């Protein structure tokens, strides 16, 4: 019974994350740096629709239930417009413009499992690790006039995100973490080989080494895909984007064509899987950590 009651409170907070109050003030986010105010859940008017579109998950952190809620910026704005209209309020143009720079809002509420109520926390921080391994940390911002914390992120890349929050209750530091999104699909290297040989080998060579006179005459010269150092610095997401959208899409050679429309998403993933076989390597932390090579 106790567990069900806590779950009910947490679910109510998740549903109420996007609640408006008279003190909404354009929904600006306030970063106190150290101390942030908590509070009880707001009313649940209009939130059933928002909850259906978003992603929610609750995890335990030493006597505290941490309720995560993730919603796309587009869905969030539609919900907020409807709610603001119902209450005769206006959305801040500045907030709307800032919101649309990001793909998602990540919101968090904290519930004391003993008191069965929302609580205040300090030193709230959120960290998101994207599918390509890049980490981005932010302060958890208190939403003015709303009873939760939040941070804006770009979570549009396909794959699994690791999302964690750290916070303090008094002097005790706690953490909670969830995963968001689906793990990247593993490609079929054999099918990737066939596609590579029909689409890529004429420039990069059958075995990944552009060794013919014609290949060498290209400016810039195609990358030696059998050389681990040539591509292992790029993330898998960058490789996928390059094969799908062409070299120009990732700041590489404009001579490299985009293959995505011809071979499809699955075909691109298969080719990338085969590239791992050619270079006998995995992929690294991103081309921003390494001098760009031409495709």
What's the helix and strand layout?
Blueprint: H1 2-15, E1 29-30, E2 35-36, H2 47-53, E3 55-60, E4 64-72, H3 73-86, H4 93-99, E5 104-112, E6 117-118, E7 121-129, E8 135-139, E9 141-143, E10 149-153, E11 161-169, E12 172-180, H5 189-199, H6 201-204, H7 213-217, H8 228-231, H9 236-245, H10 260-279
Helix pairs in contact: 5-10, 9-10
Q: Any overview of this molecule?
A:
With about 300 residues, this protein is α+β, with helices and mostly antiparallel strands. It has helices at about 1-15, 45-55, 75-85, 95-100, 190-200, 200-205, 215, 230, 235-245, 260-280, and strands at about 30, 35, 55-60, 65-70, 105-110, 115-120, 120-130, 135-140, 140-145, 150-155, 160-170, 170-180. Helix 5 (about 190-200) crosses helix 10 and helix 9 crosses helix 10 (about 260-280). The model is unreliable at about 10-50 and about 285-295 (pLDDT under 50).
List keywords for this structure.
alpha+beta; Immunoglobulin-like; Cytochrome Bc1 Complex, Chain D, domain 2; 2 domains; seven-stranded antiparallel beta sheet; five-stranded antiparallel beta sheet
Offer a quick outline of the entry.
The protein has 295 residues and is of the alpha+beta class.
The helix tally amounts to 10
Give the name of the CATH superfamily of the largest domain.
Answer: Domain of unknown function DUF4426
Main sheet specs: 7 strands, antiparallel
Name the CATH class of the largest domain.
Answer: Mainly Beta
CATH architecture of the largest domain: Sandwich
Helix content: 25-40%
- Principal-axis shape equals elongated
Helix and strand content put the structural class at: alpha+beta
| Tally of separate domains | 2
Low-confidence stretches: 9-52, 285-295
Mean pLDDT across every amino acid position: 77
Under CATH, the topology of the largest domain is which? Immunoglobulin-like
């Amino acid at each position: 019974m106790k567990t069900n009651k806590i779950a009910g409170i947490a679910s109510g907070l998740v549903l109420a994350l996007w609640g408006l109050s008279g003190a909404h003030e354009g929904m600006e986010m306030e970063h106190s740096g150290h101390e942030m105010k908590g509070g009880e859940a707001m009313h649940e008017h209009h939130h059933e629709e928002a909850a259906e579109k978003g992603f929610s998950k609750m995890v335990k952190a030493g006597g505290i239930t941490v309720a995560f809620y993730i919603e796309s910026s587009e869905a969030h704005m539609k919900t907020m417009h409807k709610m603001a209209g119902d209450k005769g309020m206006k959305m801040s143009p500045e907030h709307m413009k800032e919101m649309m720079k990001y793909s998602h809002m990540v919101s968090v509420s904290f519930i004391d499992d003993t008191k069965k109520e929302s609580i205040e926390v300090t030193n709230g921080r959120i960290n998101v690790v994207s599918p390509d391994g890049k980490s981005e940390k932010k302060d958890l911002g208190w939403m003015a006039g709303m009873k939760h914390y939040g941070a804006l992120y770009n979570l549009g890349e396909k794959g699994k995100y690791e999302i964690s929050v750290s916070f303090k209750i008094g002097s005790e530091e706690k953490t909670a973490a969830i995963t968001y999104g689906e793990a990247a699909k593993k490609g079929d290297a054999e099918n990737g080989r066939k596609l590579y040989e029909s689409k890529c080998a004429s420039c990069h060579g059958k075995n990944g080494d552009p060794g013919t006179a014609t290949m060498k005459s290209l400016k810039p010269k195609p990358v030696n895909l059998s050389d681990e150092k040539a591509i292992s610095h790029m993330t898998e997401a960058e490789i996928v984007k390059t094969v799908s959208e062409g070299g120009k899409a990732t700041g590489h050679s404009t001579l490299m064509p985009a293959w995505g429309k011809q071979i499809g998403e699955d075909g691109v993933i298969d080719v990338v899987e085969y590239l791992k076989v050619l270079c006998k390597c995995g992929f690294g932390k991103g081309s921003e950590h390494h001098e760009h090579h031409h495709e």
